[in-house]
């Protein structure tokens, strides 16, 4: 989209905002349109004003409970506190690859890379795990092998139709980081890939996106985004202590800077024959239904790394809420940048 069109979008949206009720859904969408166009024009400071207003309006309706989230973490740890004792046959179908992480961390990119390999089918973000967890595990005691086997069977029943030649399938629901023990108990041959990305870039990408799902309510305030980042890191620290060899950590920054080595490492971990096509996920013709569609269609690049400075005043608020013990690589004294920067979708 050329600059003239983008400037027209900004002008039209700004004019319409002045004429609409401040708290209307239409006003929120107009702020989104103006902010997105301004980001593409490289006018990030002006863009952030629209995104700040957008999320301020959304936050009034989209409540987030930190207490509830951390309470669930405590319950999950009570259900899954040790490596599962699995003794049932799981060779009843293709093996799963679960890609987890924070939203906007690169989970879609990983899915598109892996599904370039023959016999690997992407299933997108399946909601099956969370729904079945709530249906099948109402108690507080640890999950036993029989329950895990029942979960595995029911999970497979809810899978979408897979091509006949499918050897492995990918479930890239980011929020599955909460249920790693259950997934590994239910699928002993399953693989977990944990995608890590600088939480400041994750926060920027969330802030310049509007999510409709109720489970993404936290994306409407910076403190809640930081809280969710801390929660994610706490879950993964718990799981990795239990499964030190069954979870592969992939750094988004390492992936986009060293594509060949990182794709080969992922393929080896998943038991997939590496192909050079995995370095070009933009050629993948499988559908993408998440907000990352534009990003993965532009190929692997480093243009979205380190752009967090354009968060402006929100950067200090974010860093102040990130737990330094969980995020030791985040400099608490990182300075806020002032330069505008044009770039691709975040």
How are the SSEs ordered, and which strands pair?
Layout: H1 3-19, H2 25-40, H3 44-59, H4 66-79, E1 95-101, H5 107-114, E2 120-122, H6 128-136, H7 145-157, E3 168-171, H8 180-186, E4 191-196, H9 199-207, H10 222-242, E5 247-251, H11 252-257, H12 259-270, H13 293-296, H14 313-321
Parallel strand pairs: 1-3, 1-4, 2-3, 4-5
Short note summarizing the structure:
By secondary structure, the protein is an alpha/beta fold. It is built from 14 helices and 5 strands.
Account of the 3D structure:
The protein is α/β, with parallel strands linked by helices and 346 residues long. The protein has helices at 3-19, 25-40, 44-59, 66-79, 107-114, 128-136, 145-157, 180-186, 199-207, 222-242, 252-257, 259-270, 293-296, 313-321; strands at 95-101, 120-122, 168-171, 191-196, 247-251. It has a five-stranded parallel sheet with strand order 2-3-1-4-5, sandwiched between helices. α2 packs antiparallel against α3, α6 (128-136) packs across α7 and α10 packs parallel to α14. The two termini are 16 Å apart. The model has no long low-confidence stretch (mean pLDDT 87).
């Amino acid at each position: 989209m050329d600059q003239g069109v983008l400037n027209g979008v900004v002008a039209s949206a700004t004019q319409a905002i002045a004429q609409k009720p401040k708290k209307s859904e239409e006003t929120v969408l107009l702020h989104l349109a103006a902010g997105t166009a301004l980001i593409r024009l490289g006018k990030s400071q002006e863009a952030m004003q629209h995104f700040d207003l957008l999320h301020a309006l959304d936050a009034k309706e989209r409540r987030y409970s930190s207490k509830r989230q951390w309470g669930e973490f405590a319950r999950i740890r009570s259900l899954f506190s040790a490596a599962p004792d699995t003794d049932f046959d799981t060779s009843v179908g293709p093996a799963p690859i679960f890609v987890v992480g924070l939203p906007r961390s690169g989970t879609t990119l990983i899915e598109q890379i892996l599904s370039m390999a023959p016999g690997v089918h992407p299933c997108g973000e399946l909601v099956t795990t969370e729904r079945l967890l709530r249906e099948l595990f109402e108690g507080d005691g640890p999950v036993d092998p029989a329950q895990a086997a029942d979960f595995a069977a029911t999970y497979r029943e809810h899978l979408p139709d897979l091509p006949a030649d499918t050897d492995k399938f990918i479930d890239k629901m980011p929020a599955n980081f909460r249920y790693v023990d259950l997934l590994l108990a239910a699928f002993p041959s399953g693989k977990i890939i944990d995608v890590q990305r600088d939480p400041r870039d994750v926060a920027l990408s969330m802030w310049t996106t509007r999510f409709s799902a109720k489970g993404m309510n936290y994306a409407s305030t910076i403190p809640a985004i930081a809280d969710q980042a801390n929660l994610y890191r706490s879950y993964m620290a718990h799981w990795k202590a239990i499964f030190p060899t069954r979870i592969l950590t992939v750094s988004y920054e390492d992936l986009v800077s060293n594509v060949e080595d990182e794709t080969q490492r992922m393929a080896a971990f998943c038991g997939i024959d590496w192909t050079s096509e995995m370095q070009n996920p933009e050629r993948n013709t499988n559908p993408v239904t998440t907000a990352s569609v534009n990003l993965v269609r532009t190929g692997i690049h480093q243009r979205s790394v380190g752009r967090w400075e354009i968060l402006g005043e929100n950067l200090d608020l974010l860093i102040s809420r990130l737990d330094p013990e969980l995020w030791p690589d985040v400099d608490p004294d990182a300075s806020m940048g002032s330069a505008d920067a044009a770039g691709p979708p975040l």
